[in-house]
# Entry
Amino acid sequence: MRQAIIAILLLSMVAMGQIIQLPPPPGNDIDLHSAIESRRSRRTFGDGAVTFEQISELLWSSAGITDPGGRLRAAPSAGATYPVDTYILVERAEGLAPGLYRYIEKDHALELIEEGNLAGKLSEASLGQNSVRTAAVSILLYVIVERTASRYGDRADRYVNMEVGHIAQNIYLTAEGLNLSTVAIGAFDDDAVAQLFEVDGALRYYMAIGTRPE
# Structure
């Protein structure tokens, strides 16, 4: 029954067009102390799919809107310039077809950028790392440094790097709370990655995420 509901949901999303509304982030039951204590880089993933609700929580914790005014986000940003754009590369997710999606923070929604199973290509551009190839999803952090440089000049790049680190740690702790595995990926060929996807900015860092092996 669950699989049938998911299939119907996926078909309805395709019929609705390119913008896919995410459900409200569900939260999790683990306390912050326990999440920090048990946080690890986990490079081995199970074969299962992550759920639509887990994706909602992961993306909200990375860059979601957290104040009623709709301006402040889950991770701090120098001068609230928000130079990081968040994308998710989906391979195995309940309710989402494989492909690259952009996270739309203000709407807590996804925009389909490119369809298809693309993790193998990303792995090749990332020195052949198997964790990238076998991940259920990867959250990609693209940066547009000019957003911060317009205010902070030459210090912008270091501020952008700080922000990427804040977001990555949020994802680490959220994955721990959701009983998922994740590892930060910083080793990749910049030029090769730039040729993979037609998106603005440069990939600075990303997180491979999947279920835990049984």
